[in-house]
């Protein structure tokens, strides 16, 4: 384990030697190195003033050093050098992240980096943004410690900038600013509603439980129902700068009882509940309340019902103060034939209709039916016979903007803390196809500016009502945009969501790499083949490298779908522009679709069905 500590004045000469060895590693000739030596020299009296730190191995050997120079709000990364024998082992990454952390603590909001050309790829991969070339002579904008000697000659330095950022305030409030235990109880949450639109085996929910890795910006432990590939957790930890994450997977052989499986293991239950860290579930359940020592109040989840949420929206809008928000009409049909009559009447009027199950999730149980589709099916009753059994809500379909590229599906995310305070997380643009959620994008510019104010105001109003009803935890409010550019709320979810995962990763990357990340979660990226675990690891590593070359970050979010008969991945990509984000997603989808070519010689039955691991592990 590499650790970082403050450098000592007595080490100045040895550190200078490390700097020169590291510089020489790139093949510079003796004359150039001799010319650079005076400005690369570290003097004993500079060690403290230049805020130099060193990275050392467990035996105390120095592996590298870095300096943070200047003061808030503008500072510079004056030095970052790694012992040649340690290059490529993650030492530079640790030192760079330490510099950003210290910069945040000291109020720095702009960090200038004048990089050796050979290190430019490293700084891009770490999230620094290319800036105008370094000046060869000081100017009013030149950091006080910028190189002015031989290394600053035209063409020898590449300038980057980073924007050090503290962890978002909402993220600190979510887990108290520390790490958390993440419990992937998606199937358990769904099962308590008994909705007939969900598949009996809850296979989709068990895949979605992999998102437990991202229930907060920095987990201490993951608790998962199914076994996950070890290579997956290792790559996620690397991409997000996590260390010491314990993984407890493969806990459930069948059914949805993840927390019951934990409670059946007293030592594990005591370890998780007694760690002094918050336990974060996908959603609240009675078993989770017992594990966490949290009073269980089933009434907290009343607005998970789409009908109850609709009535809540009606009450809020009746109070006024929300211009630009309209509510689609909704009927809770007394039975299937009553629903058929409403659907038939709407079809005769040429209107499209949304049919919803009371507690469908992720688009399950939601069907959009046009008047033409009703006629083609042979009538309203024929349409309903194809839908899952159970209560139906019949809702007005909101026609969208004429421009197919305009924002259509938006969402608000927030949470109610244990004291009943509502915290705004933000707004996201969702990808919804035929009523089914496919992913979301969060970050600067993801949501149209015109929509932000009314969306955030209405979401906050819903949060206050949830808090008053006794609910504590994460929630979202989903909206569609109508043809006139108004927002129509459609449901609220009292649990974590796909967009919430993107918000968590954005908060982590902003703190780790500098502010301004857009993050997109794509629930399903089709794979061209069902891969063995080792090849899945190789694919994900290749995608991480490919995205880094574009200036983006790739994080595999749901790996277990890769072992399904029709294989797929859930992924996260992050970048600082929508153009780069789109390019990264296109790269991921293209490479994933093409990956099967090398496995054409194998029949699906010849390939391993997925990872086999014992519960427990550490990364």
Structure summarized in a few sentences:
The chain is α+β, with helices and mostly antiparallel strands. The chain is 34% helix and 22% strand.
Describe the 3D structure.
With 619 residues, the protein is an alpha+beta fold. It is built from 20 helices and 23 strands. A hairpin with a 5-residue loop joins strand 2 and strand 3. Mean pLDDT is 90; it is low at 135-148, 601-608 and 612-619.
Instruction: Please tell me what the overall shape is.
Output: elongated
Mean pLDDT: 90
The portion of residues forming beta strands comes to 15-25%
What portion of residues is helical? 25-40%
Number of DSSP helical runs: 20
Assembly context of the chains: single chain
Largest sheet: 8 strands, antiparallel
Strand pairing plus helix content: what structural class?
alpha+beta
Runs in which pLDDT lies below 50 for 5 or more consecutive residues are: 135-148, 601-608, 612-619
The Rg value, from CA coordinates, equals 27 Å
Euclidean distance between termini CA atoms: 12 Å
């Amino acid at each position: 384990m590499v650790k970082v500590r403050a450098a000592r004045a007595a080490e100045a000469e040895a550190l200078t030697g490390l700097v020169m060895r590291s510089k020489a590693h790139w093949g510079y000739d003796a004359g150039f190195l001799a010319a650079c030596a005076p400005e690369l020299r570290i003097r004993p009296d500079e060690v403290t003033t230049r805020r130099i730190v060193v990275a050392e191995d467990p035996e105390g050997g120095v592996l590298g050093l870095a300096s943070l120079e200047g003061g808030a709000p503008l500072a510079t990364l004056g030095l970052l050098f790694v012992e040649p024998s340690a290059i490529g082992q993650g030492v530079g990454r640790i030192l760079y992240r330490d510099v950003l952390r210290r910069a945040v603590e000291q109020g720095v909001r702009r960090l200038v980096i004048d990089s050796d050309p050979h290190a430019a790829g490293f700084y891009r991969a770490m999230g620094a943004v290319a800036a105008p070339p370094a000046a060869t002579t000081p100017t009013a904008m030149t950091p006080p410690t910028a190189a002015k000697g031989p290394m600053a000659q035209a063409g020898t330095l590449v300038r980057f900038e980073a924007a050090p950022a503290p962890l978002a305030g909402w993220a600190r409030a979510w887990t108290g600013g520390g790490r958390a235990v993440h419990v992937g109880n998606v199937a358990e949450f769904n099962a308590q509603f008994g909705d007939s639109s969900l598949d009996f085996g809850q296979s989709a929910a068990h895949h979605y439980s992999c998102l437990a890795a991202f229930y907060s910006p920095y987990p201490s432990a993951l608790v998962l129902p199914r076994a996950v590939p070890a290579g997956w957790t290792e790559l996620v930890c690397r991409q997000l700068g996590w260390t010491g994450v314990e993984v407890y997977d493969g806990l459930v052989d069948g059914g949805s009882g993840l927390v019951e499986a934990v409670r059946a293991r007293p030592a594990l239950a005591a370890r998780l509940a007694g760690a002094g860290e918050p336990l974060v579930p996908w959603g609240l359940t009675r078993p989770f309340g017992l594990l966490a020592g949290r009073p269980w109040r089933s009434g907290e989840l009343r607005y998970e019902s789409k009908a109850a949420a609709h009535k809540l929206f009606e009450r809020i809008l009746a109070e006024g103060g929300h211009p630009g928000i309209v509510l689609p009409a909704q009927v809770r049909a007394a039975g299937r034939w009553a629903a058929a009559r409403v659907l038939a009447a709407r079809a005769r009027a040429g209107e499209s209709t949304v049919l919803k199950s009371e507690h469908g999730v992720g688009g399950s149980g939601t069907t959009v039916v046009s008047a033409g589709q009703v006629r083609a099916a042979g009538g309203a009753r024929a349409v309903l016979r194809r839908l899952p059994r159970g209560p139906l809500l019949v809702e007005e379909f909101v026609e969208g903007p004429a421009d197919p590229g305009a924002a259509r599906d938006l969402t608000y995310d927030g949470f109610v803390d244990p004291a009943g305070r509502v915290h705004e997380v933000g707004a996201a643009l969702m990808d919804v196809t035929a009523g089914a959620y496919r992913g979301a994008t969060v970050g600067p510019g993801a949501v149209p500016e015109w929509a932000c104010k009314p969306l955030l105001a209405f979401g906050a109003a819903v949060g206050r009502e949830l808090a008053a009803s006794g609910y504590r935890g994460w929630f979202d409010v989903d909206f569609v945009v109508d043809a006139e550019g108004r927002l129509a709320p459609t449901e609220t979810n009292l649990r974590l969501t796909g967009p919430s995962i993107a918000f968590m990763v954005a908060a982590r990357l902003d703190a780790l790499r500098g502010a301004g990340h857009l993050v997109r979660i794509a629930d399903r990226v089709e794979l061209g083949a069902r891969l063995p675990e080792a090849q899945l690891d190789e694919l994900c590593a290749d995608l991480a490298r490919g995205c880094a070359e574009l200036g983006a970050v790739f994080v595999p979010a749901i790996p277990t779908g890769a072992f399904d008969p029709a294989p797929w991945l859930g992924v996260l990509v992050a970048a600082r522009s929508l153009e780069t984000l789109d390019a990264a997603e296109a790269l991921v989808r293209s490479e994933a679709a093409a990956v099967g070519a090398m496995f054409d010689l194998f029949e699906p039955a010849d390939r391993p069905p997925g990872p086999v691991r014992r519960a427990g592990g550490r990364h």
